[in-house]
Amino acid sequence: MEIKTFVEGPIDANNYLIIDEKTKDAVLIDCSSARPEFIKAVKDSGVNLKYILLTHGHFDHLLGIDAFKEAFGVDTYVAEDDLTQVKLVPDMMQMFLGMSPAPVPAIVNFVNDGDEFKIGDIVIKAISTPGHTKGGMCYLVESNLFSGDTLFQGSVGRCDLLEGDLKAIVKSIKEKLFTLSEDTKVYPGHGASTTIGYEKKYNEILNI
Asked: Most CB contacts within 10 A, which of 31, 64, 89, 128?
């Protein structure tokens, strides 16, 4: 398995291209930019992009999905509970960035807790982690966790936006993510990677 990281979009979100090296099947976790250079980099990887899986519906993680659909013919999946967030994309862009609103992305495919996606022999398992948003979702791929804006190195996702809930995010992390092996590597939606073991020991927000 190969993992490529692309830092894209107006708020420098991490986009992860996970590739089965045997078949070249791939999945993209989050898709925060429609930059031609981003699309070209994925094409140049020589992959068969099968899915785009969103960790949540905030604008800074999905601005590229329509362009990727056109370029690769690939469908995007999000938790249905986050459709409210997706519909707010134009308003959020104006509020946070003062930018002209982008069209609401077209998403008609939904992911639920426990769903599994396959690329070659690699299984991607969805884990529902509400808190940052109502429909927040993490993805476990072997010993790698793609945590979106749920869990960061030394922090958690902000919970002061619409449908955010601090108690819910702490519960999600402690009951869902902290049950994983401490060696599990965590790839967050922004910033540097970490491990479950490190966060259990040092994440002061969660050590309460």
From this structure: 31
